[in-house]
Structure formats: structure tokens, C-alpha cells
Write a structure and sequence with these properties.
The complex is a heterotrimer. By secondary structure, chain A is α/β, with parallel strands linked by helices. Chain A is built from 5 helices and 5 strands, in the order ββαβαβαβαα. Chain A has a 5-stranded mixed β-sheet with strand order 1-2-3-4-5, sandwiched between helices. In chain A, strand 2, helix 1 and strand 3 form a beta-alpha-beta unit. In chain A, helix 1 packs parallel to helix 2. Chain B is of the alpha/beta class. In chain B, strand 2, helix 8 and strand 3 form a beta-alpha-beta unit. Chain B has a 5-stranded mixed β-sheet, sandwiched between helices. The termini of chain B are far apart. Chain B has 12 helices and 5 strands. Chain C is an alpha+beta fold. Chain C is globular and about 35 Å long. Chain C has a 4-stranded antiparallel β-sheet with strand order 1-2-4-3, with helices on one face. Classes of the chains: A alpha/beta, B alpha/beta, C alpha+beta. Chains A and C meet through helix 2 and helix 3 of A and helix 1, helix 2 and helix 4 of C.
Chain lengths: 148, 314, 118
């Protein structure tokens, strides 16, 4: 009766994406941690993105899991990003005194991927688009102003 | 509720009240309109008449149904609900508590003379009946008072909440940049609201930088400092970096003395510096218009992607 | 886990705001886990409470008949831990609640009571 089987671990490029959609009991948490680590080893992924935007509560056990995953992933040369901490959860975590040390936290999956992409140094289409835009802005900028 | 307060209004009185209902109503209304404390700016004659009529009717119904029994009986529910509603309205309108209760209690002055008339000669029974009726009115008056107070408290609570909300504005100054000007004294509740408001805006706008301006904070003590740290930490968990601006030298000194680790928090003395830093953090830079136009003129006008160089000659 | 869910449900029913619902569910999770981890079994009682000034609240009582906590003072200090985990979740739980009381002895076990007002 392993509840963590319900939590998928998806591989997107060099990143493992883990959308945590259900409330987890302690066993599920432990099992998930083990699964993530073994997937890391198996796939050689460089990043782990854990999406907890659907979690309404994060207690010290889950907090500890996140920190542990980050530590162990680092040993395997992978970076961990936790995504989607809700406001109520953020406040509660701070009050609990959980710092989630060693864990990068961002608002959503887009930011998470961006962060990991910076890490890998991968340059992709989105960056090129932004460069083009900037060139355009420079060209169409207004009349030259003469210094006094 | 002690059972000795059971009102046992006799059937005869119930009949009497029913028969002379219109008379009672008219006298009551007339007395109210003529009384010193009639607030004609808060209620129109028409409204007063309507309300009074309904009360008298409901009272009559309740008495008949319950056979003159206890105010706690279900037959009085309709009346009770109506009284609650009126007192709530009066609380909202701004009546005083005593004005509120007087309205109901004044019914006594109308009914008792009528009872006296009817029971003429039979003083013993009369006194008994008057007592019962008075007790009933007292219960009604109490209901009005209690609900009035409850409504008042609810209004105050709501106003307080509104004020708190207005006093913690979170402003989006740029794409992905929020500002929270913290003004005045920071008590526990305000601090809580402030943190929640900021975090919610972070979610709503997807902001990654929040500028907390403490220029307007009156006193910096452990409590305030802890609230700030809590806010900064919570924001970080949501992927937003905080910049503390408006930090005067004396506040900086106080914070250090309080043992706050300022190396963890980015601070700037001026809000404008904070904004500049925030822009850089989201990948933007503030440049003068002149410099930018020089850039665009120096750039290769072709559509090829080339590096633009800024020439140093003007 | 069941404790969390029921506590949150009660909090919702009593009219607590989301942030307070989360706090209560988190406290329930922390302290219920303590029971299981250190005593094997125990019980969680959730009761509505009423403050003197009329406010509604929720009282949670966590009881076990385990060995008791030998050094409560140390346990309440942040960072202390006799087993795996973050200092038994006690100091954190205290910060999440408005009222916090703990009674523990080797003979009678441990009872932690927390209250949060609306």
C-alpha cells in the first residue's frame, strides 16, 4: 500500500519533475525520497524540481525530506528546486522554525525551470527572443537628446 | 433561565390586546413620534409605522398561538427574529443603546393604561397581569439590547479589518517588483496582515522582488524586527527576495544591537536605490535617455544580430 | 494524517481563516507524530473553546502514556533533539498556538494542550 506510487516522477530534459498532488503520510514521504534518489542515479538528471503548490500544509517531516533530498542530490551533482510554497504554508514554515536550508525555492514551475537552466548554462530559444526584443528597442528609441 | 420568570398572560388579556390592537398601535406610534428622543433623521414616520405595526401584529400572533406563555416558546420566534433585525439595523444607523431599548419598553405606557381600564375594580388581578406583561416586554427589550451590542461589535470588527487592509498596501512598481511601505506602529495583528498581504500579492503577480520600505516605521524594537525577519523569510520561501529600504543609520544601529544579522538582508538607505537594485535583479537597468539614444545610433541599423558597442565620443 | 484532516475540518467549521487552519493542521501533524514516535500510541482530542471575551477557539489535546519527556526545558529549546527530527516539534508548535501547555512525567506519560483563537 505504497501511497507514493501515486506521485509521478517525470523526466523533462535533464530535470526530474515531481508534482506532489496528494497529502502525504510519513511512509509516503520516505518512499518518495527514495524513489527520487534512485531516479536521479538511474537517469543522471542534473536537476530536481519538486512542485508542492497543491500542498496545504508542510510540517517538519516533509520539510526535513526536502532538505535531505537537496543534500543528497547535491552529492550527485544535481540541484534541487522547490516550487509553489503557498502563503499559508510559508508563514507556518517560518513560525515552525524550518529554514529549508540548502533548498532553492521559487514561486512556480517556470521560474524553477529558469533557475535550473541557468545552472546548466543551457542557452535556448527564449533567451534568443529576448535578445531580439532588446535590439528592437534600441533601434526604435526616441530622438537624441542633446546634453546641456 | 429560572422558571419563575414564566409569563402567564391570561387569555383575557390576549383577547383584549387583540381586540384593541389598532388602538394600541396608533397610540404607540403617536407617543414615539412625539417623544423627545425620536430620531427623525434616522427613521421616517412611514418606517416607524411599519415596524411598529409588525411588532404589534407579531406579538399578538405569538400570544395567541402560545396561549399567553413564555417568551422562550417557539411561537415567539418570529417576533424574536424581527426584533433582532430591527436592533441590528438600528446599530448600523447609529442609534444609542438606550434609544434602541426605549422603543420597545415604551409599549408598556400604552398597554398598561388599557389593562387598567379593562380590569377596573379588580386590582389584584390587574397587578398580576401588569406584572406578566411588563416581564414580557422586559424580555423583548433585552433581546433588542443584546443584539444591538452584538451588531455594534460586529461593525467595529469589520471596520477594524477594513482599516487594517487599507493600511497595508502592496504596490506593484514594475513587472515582478512589489513595494510595501510600512508606516506607523507595527502591532502583532498589523504585522500579520502585512505579511499575508505581501505574500498574496507575490502569488498574484509572480513577483520575485519585494521592497520593504521602513522609512515610516516609528520604533524599531525586537518585535518589529522579528516581524520583518519573518516576512523576509516567508517571502524567500515563495521565491521573492526582499530589499529593506529607508534604513536610517540609527535604525541600522538599533538592528545591530538587537542582534539581527544584517548580512542576510539586503538594505538600502533610499527607496530609489532599492528600486534600482530591484530592477537589476530582474534583469533591467536604469540608463539615462541620452545614453540610450547614443546606443541606438551607434548600433548597426541592419537586422543582423550584432553586438552593440557604446562609443565614448559624444 | 487522519488527525490533520479532522483538525482542519474542525477549524474550517469554526470559522478559522486559511492561515490559522494551516497552523492548526500543522500543529496536529507535529504533535501527533510525536506521540507515535515516542510513545507508540496515544490520543488526540479536539474541542471547540470559548474565550472570556467571546471569541471562538480550538483546543487540541495530545496525550500518551509513554515514558514522558525527561528534560522539558531542553526539549522546548530550539534545535534540541533526542531522536531524528527537529527538536520534537515542540517549540515550533508553541509558536503556532496562542496557548501552550505541557505536562509530562515518567509515570503518567505526556500531555500537550494547545489552543488557538480566531
Amino acid at each position: 500500500m505504497n501511497g507514493s506510487q501515486r506521485i509521478p516522477i517525470l523526466k523533462v530534459g535533464r530535470v526530474l519533475v515531481v508534482p506532489v498532488q496528494v497529502d502525504m503520510d510519513d511512509q509516503t514521504v520516505i518512499a518518495l525520497q527514495e524513489r527520487i534518489l534512485s531516479e536521479l542515479e538511474r537517469t543522471g538528471a542534473r536537476g530536481v524540481l519538486i512542485d508542492i503548490s497543491l500542498l496545504e500544509m508542510v510540517d517538519s517531516f516533509i520539510g526535513r525530506m526536502l532538505s535531505d533530498i537537496a543534500s543528497m542530490a547535491r552529492i550527485m551533482d544535481a540541484r534541487t528546486v522547490v516550487v509553489g510554497i503557498q502563503p499559508a504554508v510559508a508563514i507556518t514554515l517560518v513560525e515552525l522554525g524550518l529554514e529549508l536550508r540548502g533548498v532553492d525555492t521559487v514561486l512556480n514551475v517556470d521560474e524553477g525551470i529558469k533557475l535550473l537552466r541557468d545552472e546548466f548554462g543551457a542557452h535556448d530559444e527564449a533567451d534568443d527572443e529576448e535578445d531580439d526584443e532588446l535590439q528592437g528597442e534600441l533601434h526604435t528609441f526616441g530622438e537624441p537628446r542633446h546634453h546641456a | 433561565m429560572p422558571s419563575s420568570t414564566k409569563t402567564q398572560i391570561s387569555g383575557r388579556v390576549v383577547e383584549l390586546l387583540s381586540a384593541r390592537r389598532d388602538e394600541i398601535l396608533n397610540i404607540w406610534i403617536k407617543q414615539r413620534l412625539e417623544s423627545e428622543d425620536f430620531r427623525d433623521e434616522l427613521i421616517s414616520k412611514h418606517e416607524l409605522r411599519q415596524q411598529s405595526q409588525q411588532i404589534v401584529e407579531m406579538l399578538g400572533r405569538a400570544l395567541q398561538e402560545s396561549d399567553g406563555a413564555d417568551f422562550d416558546e417557539p411561537s415567539f420566534d418570529e417576533l424574536r427574529v424581527f426584533l433582532n433585525e430591527i436592533s441590528r439595523q438600528r446599530a448600523v444607523k447609529g442609534y444609542t443603546p438606550s434609544e434602541n431599548a426605549t422603543y420597545i419598553l415604551s409599549l408598556r405606557n400604552v398597554v398598561l393604561p388599557i389593562l387598567a381600564e379593562d380590569f377596573e375594580g379588580d386590582t389584584v388581578t390587574l397587578v398580576g397581569e401588569m406584572n406578566h406583561f411588563t416581564r414580557l416586554l422586559d424580555r423583548m427589550g433585552l433581546v433588542m439590547v443584546e443584539n444591538f451590542i452584538r451588531s455594534r461589535e460586529e461593525i467595529i470588527r469589520q471596520q477594524r479589518a477594513d482599516m487594517l487592509e487599507l493600511s497595508t498596501p502592496v504596490i506593484k512598481v514594475w513587472d515582478k517588483i512589489l513595494t510595501l511601505p510600512i508606516i506607523g506602529t507595527l502591532d502583532s495583528r498589523r504585522a500579520q496582515m502585512m505579511t499575508e498581504a505581501l505574500l498574496q500579492r507575490i502569488v498574484d503577480t509572480g513577483s520575485t522582488v519585494a521592497i520593504l520600505d521602513i522609512t515610516g516605521v516609528r520604533t524599531m524594537d525586537t518585535l518589529v524586527a522579528n516581524h520583518l525577519i519573518k516576512t523576509v523569510t516567508a517571502a524567500r520561501l515563495m521565491g521573492a527576495r526582499c530589499i529593506l529600504t529607508g534604513v536610517s543609520p540609527s535604525i541600522a544601529q538599533t538592528m545591530v544591537q538587537l542582534g539581527i544579522d544584517l548580512t542576510e538582508i539586503t538594505t538600502r538607505a533610499q527607496m530609489s536605490d532599492g528600486i534600482k537594485l530591484a530592477l537589476e535583479m530582474v534583469g533591467r537597468k536604469v540608463v539615462s535617455a541620452a545614453a540610450l539614444s547614443r546606443l541606438s545610433h551607434a548600433a548597426n541599423p541592419s537586422t543582423q544580430k550584432t553586438e552593440t558597442t557604446v562609443t565614448s565620443d559624444k | 494524517m487522519v488527525a490533520r484532516g479532522e483538525v482542519r475540518a474542525m477549524a474550517v467549521a469554526l470559522g478559522f481563516r486559511l492561515i490559522d487552519q494551516t497552523r492548526l493542521a500543522t500543529v496536529a501533524s507535529e504533535l501527533a507524530r510525536n506521540i507515535i514516535k515516542y510513545a507508540g500510541r496515544g490520543q488526540v482530542i479536539a474541542q471547540p473553546a470559548r474565550h472570556a471575551d467571546g471569541r471562538t477557539g480550538l483546543r487540541l489535546i495530545f496525550e500518551d502514556s509513554g515514558r514522558g519527556i525527561p528534560n522539558i526545558e531542553a526539549a522546548m529549546r530550539d534545535g534540541f533533539s533526542t531522536g531524528r527530527g527537529l527538536g520534537q516539534g515542540l517549540p515550533g508548535s508553541r509558536r503556532l498556538a496562542h496557548e501552550f501547555e505541557i505536562v509530562s512525567s515518567p509515570e503518567r506519560g505526556t500531555r500537550v494542550t494547545v489552543v488557538r483563537w480566531i
